[in-house]
Amino acid sequence: MKLLHIDSSILGDNSASRALTAEIVHRLKLQTPGVQLTRLDLDAEPLPHLSAGSLAKLDATEAARAERALLDFLEADVLVIGAPMYNFSIPSTLKAWIDRVAIAGKSFRYTASGPEGLAKGKVAILAITQGGVHELGGPSEHHESYLRFVLNFLGISDVRVVRAQGLARSDLRASALNDALRAVPASLAQAA
Ligand SMILES: Cc1cc2nc3c(=O)[nH]c(=O)nc-3n(C[C@H](O)[C@H](O)[C@H](O)COP(=O)(O)O)c2cc1C
User: Fold this and answer.
1) Phi, psi of 15 (to 5 degrees)
2) Which of 7, 85, 102, 130 gets the highest tally of CB atoms within 10 A of its CB?
3) Best residue among 14, 18, 43, 87 to mutate for probing ligand 1, ranked by most atoms within 8 Å of CB
């Protein structure tokens, strides 16, 4: 099984989403011998935002990284994605990664009957963290719903979520994170 572990939090050791993805990956490795792990830390090594130069492949190093990111995505059986909410949406580094893997003809295509995702058969497990509490699909939430939509668009219908909300509240933070950590095994059981 090929596992792609992505983090995007800027909070390092204080990050709740990193704690959650680490727990998910740890458990997946225990549960599935011989996991091939690919790690993408989008804070330590962000992919450049798309530009006219990216499209023209002016920078060979950037083009090679983009190609690698796309291949790692296409080859993965399971994606574990740490996704904190920043300004009501996902971190821009995670969006920059999506811009590199959502490629017409590779991960989706347009057909006469509409778009078709080509990245089928994968499982995506999202570690969703928010400082506040935002109703899924509500006016302030362009985060989990966006990620679910774009992954579905690319053909990934099996999207599981481990969610910790209210992390900015000191009275809620510890219990929110602990509850989310406790929810990890159930999210993986669904993945079996
Ligand atoms: C730059 C920045 C923007 C944020 N914007 C929001 C926001 O719009 N809504 C919210 O509920 N929390 C917001 N937060 C709080 C984070 O979602 C919260 O700290 C969460 O724990 C981040 O996940 P992490 O611990 O993995 O970094 C923001 C945090 C940062 C650093």
Assistant:
1) -80, 130
2) 7
3) 87
